[in-house]
Amino acid sequence: MDLENKYRLRVKSCIGTIIDVHKIIGSKYNNEEFLAQFEELKQAVECLDMSMVSEGDVLMVEQATNALLKEFRALFSAGGLGPVYEKPKS
């Protein structure tokens, strides 16, 4: 896989994680506009010229995603929202 596709995959992974978390939170705090904007962003990543993107750009997206997830930690730690992803059954 070339570097541009790796960058695209990493950015899409961040956006997908935010969408997945919002789907869980959205059941309690309904904000469909927020979710729709991230769905549009996920699709827009396909059109980006990734040759213009650097490792530093991707790291900023990953760091921002991690910071957002830390903000949500308290909501999930309280136990009222449940897991974002199901544990694999062995």
Gist of the model:
With 90 residues, this protein is mainly α. It has helices spanning 3-26, 32-44, 55-77.
Describe the structure.
- This protein starts with a helix and ends in a 13-residue tail after the last helix.
- It has 3 helices and no strands.
- The chain is globular, with a radius of gyration of 15 Å.
- The protein has helices spanning 3-26, 32-44, 55-77.
- It has one domain (3-77).
- The longest helix has 24 residues, at 3-26.
- It is mainly alpha-helical.
- 67% of the residues lie in helices and 0% in strands.
Question: What are its keywords?
Answer:
mainly alpha; 90 residues
List the helices and strands and how they pair.
Layout: H1 3-26, H2 32-44, H3 55-77
Helix pairs in contact: 1-2, 1-3
What structural category do the secondary elements indicate?
mainly alpha
User: How far from one another are the termini?
Assistant: 31 Å
Amount of helix: 55-70%
When the domains are counted, the total is 1
Average pLDDT taken over every residue: 82
Rg (CA only): 15 Å
The largest sheet is: none
Any low-confidence stretches, pLDDT <50, length ≥5?
Answer: none
Order of helices and strands: HHH
Gross geometry:
globular
Total strand segments: 0
Strand content: under 5%
Total helical elements:
3
